[in-house]
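Data availability (excerpt). The following record was deposited with the supplementary files.
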Amino acid sequence: MGRHFCRYISDTKLIGMCLLLGTATMLPTESSAETLAQALSAAYNTNPTLAAERAQLRATDEGVSQAVSDWRPTAELTSDYKNSWSNTKGGTSLVGNNHTKTVDAGAKVTQNIYKGGRTTSGIRQAEANVGAGRSKLLNVEQKVFVEAIGAFLQVIRDIEVVDLRVNDEQRLARQHESVQARFELGDLTRTDVAQSKASLSKSKAARRQAEGELEVSRANYERIIGMPAGGLETPAVATDLPKTLDQAIEITVQNNPSVTNAVFAQQSAKEGIEQAEGTFLPTVNMSGTADRLWLRERSRSRTNSATFSVGLSVPLDTSGVLQSKLRQAHQSSSQARLQYEAARNEAIEATIKAWENYFTAEAKIQPLEDQVEASTIAYEGSKLEEEVGNRTIFEVLEEKQKLIQAHVELVDANRVYRLAAYELMSAMGVLTAENLGLAVDKYDPNDHYDDVSDRWMGLGTKWRGKTKEANDV
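Predicted structure:
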């Protein structure tokens, strides 16, 4: 087993690093602001879902060690103590009385010589299962990162919306005071005052709702990333994605972990056929025993014995069980092949969908920016017109609400736009710590695999007792 489980084409690492590292140069922020890369690093190190999947992979590694053990001899010690009495009577008299104590100790070593190739295919099947497990781990890693990025961007969005709502409430409060004063001077009507108060009350409710949504987002952020959200730096807009959809699909077919998982599952199923076919072939075992028997009588005799044997067994009639298992293995292989096709098609579909979502989100930004600009002009103009009597207070308030709503829609669109880029990376299978260039101690699945795959005895040198992840969590 080796590094061939994770295959990346040459451009994928550059894609991720440009997306993340670009944040520091493109957006000026406070020195204390937390970057997206830092948040993803925290999630990578502390997320319990990711840590649990790593533990599951380490358990899968043990399947290789168990399969390799079929090449090795087995040894056992046996011991037996027996204390027996017997007597013989002839008529009314006792003619014989025996009391025997025996101690028997021995050792037996058994070595399999041949069992139809099942050991070799079993090892290959276990290795394929490890490959599938590694692909699954990458899939979980990507899902955690998508959740983390979504939580990060949602907190930023909600903070911006709260700021908009707070500013709107403060402005409406000042405006309401002005309207009240003008009403007292006879310049405005009671209806104007009521409309102003209604707008202020609506703004307060919107501000409270925005604050509640922010608290929910912060809680979700802490659950996924493992620490509270502080000041967050808005990440740069992604620009270094594949140039064409065909390139994105090519990357997907090679790297999407659901596809690679299905490839390894297909290999495992094929080895299952080899395993089933091997049950029809002979099994040859070689064994040797050494035994010593102590007879605890007056003579205290001792008998030593040793045997060596080679056994051959050939299945003849198993009531159809072996044939059924072989048919079952072939059907499982067919299932795995079809599941690969399904996984490949689903991955391509997800990439196409993510691609279209990204460019659709990108296309919305400029119109929404134009809408904000137009709404700003309309609002400022309505205020001037109200001062000369061409507009009512209600119309000014309406224009202001349109402006606030335009700002909120633009904030939402920016969140969707940034998130869509990372969802596209996830669909392609390149949203990993390695490709993103995160400054973390990367989890290397080979460490545990190399430690246990050929181990005869012991719990391993690196994973004895509590694991690193268990300690961290």
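Summary of structural features: The longest strand covers residues 93-114.
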